[in-house]
Amino acid sequence: MTEFIQVSTAVDSKERANKIARRLLDERVASCVQVLGPIQSKYWWRGRIERAREWICFIKARADDYWRIEASIKKVHPYDVPEILAFPVLRGNADYLNWIKRETARKQLTSDNFGYVSSTSSFG
C-alpha cells in the first residue's frame, strides 16, 4: 500500500464541491482539494444513459485517511451512489508529499506526570 492517495468525487454544483472541499480541509483529512468544472458526465443510471453537468474534487491525502474521507463525503453528498475513488500516489515530489503529511497531521493529547495535558503533532 502507498502512503498517499488522490481521491476524486463529482457533484452537481460548484457550491456542493466547495462544501466538500472545506469539510475535508477542516477535518484535516486533506491537505488540498482542487475543484474543477463544470465538466460534462455521461453515465448509466437505472437502465438509461444520462448526462449531467458536474464539478469534480481532487483530494490530496494520506492513504490511512481514506475511510474518514469517504464517510465525510457521504454525509453531505447529494447522490444515491456517489463516485468516491482513491488512486495511489506511486511517486511524487518529496517536498510536496512531506507537506501533505504535515498538513494532515492530527494533534495528540499527552499528559505529563502532574496531569497537565498538552497537544503534540503526530508528524515526525
Give an overview in words.
With 124 residues, this protein is an alpha+beta fold. The chain has helices at 14-26, 66-76, 94-103; strands spanning 4-11, 32-45, 48-62, 85-88, 107-111, 117-121. Strand 5 and strand 6 (117-121) form a beta hairpin. Helix 1 packs across helix 2 (66-76).
List the helices and strands and how they pair.
Elements: E1 4-11, H1 14-26, E2 32-45, E3 48-62, H2 66-76, E4 85-88, H3 94-103, E5 107-111, E6 117-121
Antiparallel strand pairs: 1-3, 1-4, 2-3, 5-6
How is the main sheet built?
4 strands, antiparallel
Helix count, DSSP H or I runs of 4 or more residues: 3
Could you say how many structural domains there are in total?
Answer: 1
Q: Average pLDDT value?
A: 90
CATH fold-level label: Alpha-Beta Plaits
What is the topology, as strand order, of the major beta sheet? 2-3-1-4
CATH architectural label:
2-Layer Sandwich
Number of strands: 6
| Overall 3D shape | elongated
From the structure above, extract its key features.
single chain, alpha+beta, Alpha-Beta Plaits, four-stranded antiparallel sheet, two-stranded antiparallel sheet, elongated
Would you kindly provide a brief summary of this structure?
The protein is an alpha+beta fold and 124 residues long.
